[in-house]
Amino acid sequence: MTELNQRIEMPPEATPVVVFGAGSIVTDAHLPAYRDLGVPVAGIFDPDAQKAAKVADDWGARVFATVEEAVAQGRVIYDLAVPPAAIPAILEALPDGATAIIQKPLGSDLSEASAIIAILRRKNIHAAVNFQLRFAPMSLALKDAIARGQLGEVVDFDAWLALDTPWHLWAFLADLPRVEILLHSIHYLDFVRDIMGNPQGIHAKTVGHPSSTVSNTRTAMILDYGEAARCALSINHNHAFGRKFQACEFRICGTKGAAYMKLGVNLDYPKGEPDELWLNTDGEWRQVPLAGNWFIEAFHGRFAQVQRFAAGLDAEIEGSAEDAWHTMALVEAAYESSGKPMHPIKEAADA
Description:
Elements lengths: L16 E4 L3 H14 L3 E5 L3 H11 L7 H4 L6 E4 L6 H7 L5 E4 L7 H14 L2 E4 L7 H11 L6 E9 L17 H17 L4 E7 L10 E7 L5 E7 L10 E8 L3 E5 L13 E5 L4 E3 L6 H17 L10 H19 L12
Parallel strand pairs: 1-2, 1-3, 3-4, 4-5, 6-9
Antiparallel strand pairs: 6-10, 7-8, 8-9, 10-11, 11-12, 12-13
Helix pairs in contact: 1-8, 4-5, 5-9, 7-9
């Protein structure tokens, strides 16, 4: 099997980063990824000064007392690992022409995403959004296989998730009206767009579960690509009947071959299992050895590509905020579809 690309190469010299936020995503993924890539952390700011000081101390970084101090560090990349509501004010404080990484989602809804885009355009800020699934080793390898023509034209995409997700780990979700699609399946919608482009429309239904106080934890979606391709996602986070028949997988089929992806991080979460990628391009299934998993290696790819842009090696940011707006538009359309009445079924034959 031809060796497939699974990495984004770093530039010879890394640009330092200023991190806004000191939550678990920073300590569990962002700072470890920067350490692995050899990216200097110029400092950390968080409104919770005590939390910021602890994280900075643990990672040997500087702590900034104010936003103004954080944005006065010269040539750096700004990493906004903050809740959606905090994004606009930080962007307004950044220098014009800055380079930034924005934690997903791009706002809490499409109107907020559009407001963020307006700020970025006005200040000429070059921003990526941390939809990092498209940068996971298995994702990069799959995209390389597709680019090489090994699958032919992609005509089918199936996502099947039957999980027992521990929603209680995130207490803040209990009061949110939008959870499953906006904060979880948004990754899958972004990945589908990366593989297949923008759909013409979407049919969706998202609901809760009797065992959960979270507003929505189960979703079914059909992305409409006309007659050219079929795309269906079935997501159930309440399959609490043991590991045996749980699943978190994609099946991508083309006119010449097919791929199977296992997204291991969601199985037995937060412990997780290894990711898997299998390709069938000649009638036989073969497993592709992977250089890591979605978590945290996808952060390596995301951050490395922004580093390449900052160094002038890449002309554009892949997965930019402008591109991410279309993922947000797809999410918005899914919720709008879910809120509409179903198509009625006739109850009796005409006389």
